[in-house]
Specification:
Strand content: 5-15%
Number of domains: 3
Keywords: Arsenical resistance
Shape: globular
Distance between the termini: 59 Å
Protein name: Metalloregulator ArsR/SmtB family transcription factor
Pfam families: HTH_20, LMWPc, Phosphatase-like_N
InterPro entries: ArsR-like_HTH (IPR011991), HTH_ArsR_DNA-bd_dom (IPR001845), Phosphatase-like_N (IPR048716), Ptyr_pPase (IPR023485), Ptyr_pPase_sf (IPR036196), WH-like_DNA-bd_sf (IPR036388), WH_DNA-bd_sf (IPR036390)
GO biological process, one term: response to arsenic-containing substance
CATH superfamily of the largest domain: Response regulator
Amino acid sequence: MDARAPLAPGIAALGDPTRGDIVRYLLDSPGGSATVGRLTEHLALRQPTVSHHLKVLLGAGVVAREPRGREVWYSVPADVASRLDEWRPQAAREAIDATLLDRMVADLEARFAGTVSAETVRHVITESERLLAERSGGHAYPSAVAQFSAERLAALEASHESERQRIDASPVELLFVCVQNAGRSQLAAAIARHLGGDRVRVRTAGSAPAGAVRPSVIAALEELGVPLGAEFPKPLTDDVVRAADVVVTMGCGDACPVFPGRRYLDWPVDDPADRPMDAVRAIRDDIDARVRGLLTELDVLTA
């Protein structure tokens, strides 16, 4: 790709999360290249799906192909790799400036009026930006910071409500935690939201969150007609644990803080990371049965 070539095709191509995962895998692979077979195994997707995304990336000039004997290997050209940072939105490469921070504080202060102060809102936003930036190894999107902050402030609101003894009609507060918050906890949360509706308030977190929810997990949920929504991996914080009625952990050991008055469950569920799609489906079905059992026990679902 010429150094002066327009970036629009690359921007469009990398707008899809699966194609972003393909490029990251190629950059991190030994020798900087991989075959369709290796990509299919890593992403836990069908080969035609991976081939489609590679075709789009090839057309945009983001990847190159090289026949080696009977196999075709794909890689990210050096000049493209050096420019990848330019393809990220400017907001993702710069810290939130004072003007935007003030606006975010004002918006969330209005949303949670009477529950938290402006000082608390500002603290939560700045801390959330730092936590998400540490997870990604760079800067955090303002939209992600706003969503994460709003979820944490809602958790604070819920914990204050709990201290005042919530009325019986209040939704059950559920927190699902795994290591990367990219597989098991997202599966459980999506299914719980789908089944419980307004009767539950569901949050997720990870003890060592990944950069994005695994494509195979999204695909497994789509097969059931269960939406993931705008979810993304988030760090585990005390406020979301304190707000929960039930905390479900899956593989994160002792990373979850313990607060009195909460119910803690540990589900021995396999990690879908780097597993073939059939294995991901089996994990999804295991979690689905566990979530249904929990919601029935909590009188959210009728047995």
